[in-house]
C-alpha cells in the first residue's frame, strides 16, 4: 500500500500508518519528525474512533502489530526528539481517558510496555516539559476506571 488511503478512519489507513512508522522505526530525524508526531496523533484518533464506532478490527490490528511497543520504544530511545516523546505520552493519556471498551484498556495495561515506560530512568531535570507530561500521564493512569 504505497499510496495514502483516502478514508482516514479505516483499517487501511491504520495499516498505511503502521507501515510508514515501522519503516522509520526509531530513526527519527529532523526530516521525518513532524510526520512521526502527526502519525502518532492519527493512530490515537483512529483507535478512539474504532472504539466509539464498534470497529474492533482497528484495535486488533494495533495489538497484532505490537504498535504499543513501538510507541513506548520512542520514549525509551535516548535519541528520540523530545517532541516525539511528549507526543507518545500525550497519546497514551488520551487513550486512557477516551477508550470505553475495557478489553482495550486491559490489553494496553496487561502488556509489559506501560510498565517499561513507568519504570524507565529519565533525566527529567533536563526535560521539564516531558516531566510535566509524564506526571499528567501518571495521574490519568492512576485515577482511571481500569485501576
Automatic annotation (TrEMBL):
One of its GO terms (cellular component) is Golgi apparatus. GO terms for biological process: autophagy; endosomal transport; regulation of autophagosome maturation; vacuolar transport. Keywords: Autophagy. Pfam families: FPL. Residues 40-142 form the FPL domain. It comes from the Eukaryota. Transmembrane segments: none annotated. This is FPL domain-containing protein. The lineage of its organism: Eukaryota, Metamonada, Carpediemonas-like organisms, Kipferlia.
